[in-house]
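Students often ask what a 'structure token' actually looks like in practice. Rather than answer in the abstract, let us consider Pyridoxal 5'-phosphate synthase subunit PdxT, a protein of 201 residues. Its sequence is given first.
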Amino acid sequence: MDTLRAGVVAVQGDVTEHADAIERAAEAHGVAADIVEIRSAGLVPDCDVLLMPGGESTTISRLLEREGIDEEIQAHVAAEKPVLATCAGLIVASSDAKDDRVETLDILDVTVDRNAFGRQVDSFEAPLDVEGLDAPFPAVFIRAPLIDDVGNDVDVLAEWDGNPVAVRDGPVVGTSFHPELTADSRLHDLAFFDDLEVEAK
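Now compare that with the structural description of the same chain:
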């Protein structure tokens, strides 16, 4: 069986939930998933796909820079390898977080407002029509960032209340919501198995 080496940036966020979702998506394609938790430099170059979970964006960006993981992620994207960045991961991946405390990776040409959907108590779940999916996705929004501007080459995959909440920029898919907090792994499938060639490791 072919193996997908999937790196989950594990400095913060729902690492286990994302790993489970990747494994489910891989299994649906008859592929084994080798999950690598990334907390230091040197692991990203061996990964086929990367996932950047939520958490606290200023902390995530500082740790990525301190450990030298930031440049490895940028090289991963430059090599056209897939990335799924969710919630705070989306903020860190963006070109502009409108917050000088966040050192963005500039791998996703969007501008975001942190926590624009409100505080923890304002969290909600909504059925979301996502381009490429045949039925609504149960999107979970928790202190979600708002995508308020997208670059010319960015495809908007889903909107909520007139605002983009899922986008694709080349090999990078970003979501304002948490796709890992549901048993539905179609977002991981969409991000990682769209024209992905998996080789035996």
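One point worth highlighting: The first helix runs from residue 15 to 28. Ask yourself how you might have guessed this from the sequence alone, and why that guess would often be unreliable.
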